[in-house]
Design a protein that fits this description.
Number of domains: 1
Shape: elongated
Order of helices and strands: EHEEHE
Largest sheet: 2 strands, antiparallel
Number of strands: 4
CATH class: Alpha Beta
CATH architecture: 2-Layer Sandwich
Strand content: 35-45%
Amino acid sequence: MVKLVIVMKTLKTIDKWCKGCGICVEFCPKNVLGLIDDKVTVQNKEECIFCGQCELRCPDYAIFAEENNYEQAGFNARQ
């Protein structure tokens, strides 16, 4: 029996840590992020490719990709 593990990522922000510098917005290759009231917001989450540029560039650690693992019963590979 093979176990199937599905990894889903979600882009998360911590508003109280964000200083609104916009570095993450500028480095996002898919234009997923924006600034509203000097805080980063995820505006187009479907387009995110989880490249990690926003997380890598943020000097305040206010944005990150959260990983969620889901296990699903698999199949017998010998059938």
